[in-house]
Amino acid sequence: MATVNETSVDREARILEEIKLVEGSNLWSLVMRRMRKDSMGMFGFYLVVFLVIMAIVAFVIQQYDALFGLNNPTGDLWDQNNYYIEIWIPGTEKFLRIMAHPKYIIPGDQTLSPSAQYPFGTDTRGYDILSRTFFGSTFSLVLGFVGQLTTSTIGVIIGAFSGYYGGWFDDIVQRINEVISAMPGFILFIFVVAIFRDSASAVPGGIYMIVIVVFALIGWGGTSLIVRSTILSLKNTEFIEAERALGAKDARIIFRHIIPNSLSPVIVITTLGIGNTIMTIAALAFFGLGDPTAVTWGDDLSYHRDNLMTYWWMPTWPAMMIFITILGFNLMGDALRDALDPKLKS
Amino acid sequence: MSMRSYAIRRFLYIIPTLLGISIFSFLLIALSPGDPIMIRMGLFKGEQSEYEDLYEQIGFEIGLLDEDGDRVNVAVRYLRWIGLMRRPIEYQTDALTGEQVYAFSGILQGDFGRSWHWTQDGKIGKPITDIIVSRMWYTLFLTAPAFVISTVLATVIGVVQATRQYSIWDKGVTLASLVGYSMPTFWLAKLIMLGSFYMFNFTGATQGDAFREPFILNPKFYVFLILPTMTLVLTGLVFLARLTRSQLLDILRQDYITTARAKGLSERSVVYKHAFRNALLPIVTVVGMALPGLLGGAVMTEGVFGWPGLGSVFLTSALQRDHPMMMATNFIFGAMFLIFRLLVDLSYALVDPRIRY
């Protein structure tokens, strides 16, 4: 009998504790608490946090080096002597040498296998692969984030307006959506990028701008459909009616009430989509449609794709980074989906 | 509404969507910068003076210029491509008058035009239909077995995982599928090549003698088929196995499964008769929607292994600005996607008798 009493008391205490925790906490702290219980999800979350911090640190260091680097006091990009990333210690004349510069080669150090000086080795051009991998994180992640966030934003706005207003606007959007979704995704992506990249390559970074624009224009359909269906069900709820009765404008209803209430599926799609975007853009680079002058994992991987048999270290590190990024976002996205929608959880 | 009228209505609905697809792709390609005539002239070898004469001739051949050397309107080109306006037929002159023959020859007549990149004896482009039909078999021989194997394996793995939840098999396969899910296809293909190189000294990158005709009787062909098939099976497997597992787990938690167990049915009949058939619906959707991808879904794998299938054709056509080929690709894939979506929707009624149209 004692055990029965204990378990029921335990359960009661646990429920009370949970209620106390839930009280006064918003959705996000609840989601965070649910996510903490999922060890795989937290692993993915930490991976993503690690990658983001790495990208930010890489960006800051590179900018600092461009401004105050040794042998490059003017910040001239064409200074061939800026072999290393160095941090100037303010107030002194000392420099802290960190690693080789990702965009300048060290003559004579081509095709070195991993060693103490170059932990990841150097490639056929003489770049330090550790440096390329580290500083490539900025642009690789930015491409994934910007590409997916643009897609999601376009999808949310179009979905919200077409769901809320309905009528001819909704009809047109749905037809366009149908046409785009019926076209072969990756092949269409390759086609459009191949067509427009030549004229874009005149601008520095223009190729990836085109890539992102094309990606967003092709990909908004899925998000907009989900937002639209959520809004159709929200539109006739009481609190929207109340807001309308109080004389709120449509824009206020859409942006203050409808979009925030339909955001949780969008967040899941976006998280899972960032990994997917990074993979798609890397695949594009792998087939020779990237920007060979940019420092990204995808472009490094594509430059060394035929070296796997002879110099294994050249393609392996960028590929590892792409793999880790996608894994992190997938794990985190799965955990987020479970946390946001407890009904689905096993 | 009866099933038949639903099917007919949906089928008729495909037509405007296809029209939209073709207009969208045609506009996109027409708006693209660069001069296709100059790109095509790169295929010819000759003197500088010849090139100036060639420009108008080639422009006329590929339908961008008319007989006077002026640009043809985009709308006219589109209508010619559709087959609603007469277009000049390449290298065909009237036997009596010696004038250029004009005829209706477009999509409606079953003619996709001629490729700008793949040429016969360096001059006239090959008909796109011929290119697609000849390359299609390489792709189908690669993707169809891979698709069948991966579907069957994925279902089996998913069922095993769901019925033995939290066992070591389940955890191991879940971890493996997470790794596989996050692995870019092109990199997986490279790793398989590497592994095979160390074990069998064979990379699987295709060589000339792999495709000696008739390739069906050529034993080399089947040797080169193994590694790309493995790549496709592994990539296709992961998603479907995850889906099967989660669907089946969802169903196994339902009340009627408890009822079936309480009735004293064997676990086997509970899983296969009651649970699995109800879990089929989303699986049928995914499998059906993957069918059009059999022709072009293997772009990455074909690219890595140098497989001369349709995926490679599409990749090359994009890089070489082969506009008629790109149009044909978009149109054919759009049509197949729409038709298969219709078939999937109709097959719901077969899988799930509750669904009525």
Structure in a nutshell:
Chain A is mainly alpha-helical.
Helix content of chain A: 55-70%
In angstroms, what separates the terminal alpha carbons of chain B?
A: 6 Å
The name CATH uses for the topology of the largest domain in chain B is MetI-like fold
Q: List the total number of helices of chain B.
A: 14
**Structural class category of chain B:** mainly alpha
How would you characterize this protein structure?
The complex is a heterodimer of chains A (346) and B (357). Chain A has a two-stranded antiparallel ribbon. Chain A is globular and about 75 Å long. Chain A is 70% helix and 3% strand. In chain A, a hairpin with a 6-residue loop joins strand 1 (84-88) and strand 2. Chain A has a domain at 129-344: MetI-like fold. By secondary structure, chain A is mainly α. By secondary structure, chain B is mainly alpha-helical. Chain B folds into 2 domains: 36-111, no CATH class; 130-351, MetI-like (MetI-like fold, Orthogonal Bundle), CATH 1.10.3720. Chain B is built from 14 helices and 4 strands. In chain B, the strands form 2 sheets. Chain B has a two-stranded antiparallel sheet. Chain B has a two-stranded antiparallel ribbon with strand order 3-4. In chain B, a hairpin with a 6-residue loop joins strand 1 and strand 2. The model of chain B has no long low-confidence stretch (mean pLDDT 82). The A-B interface holds A 40, 175-176, 178-180, 182-184, 186-188, 190-192, 194-196, 198-199, 275, 279, 282-283, 286-289, 301, 305, 308-309, 312, 315, 319, 322-323, 326-327, 330-331, 346 and B 16-17, 20-21, 24-25, 28-29, 32-34, 165, 178-179, 181-187, 190, 193-194, 197, 203, 246, 249, 292-293, 296, 299-300, 303, 314-315, 318-319, 321, 326, 329-330, 333-334, 337-338, 341.
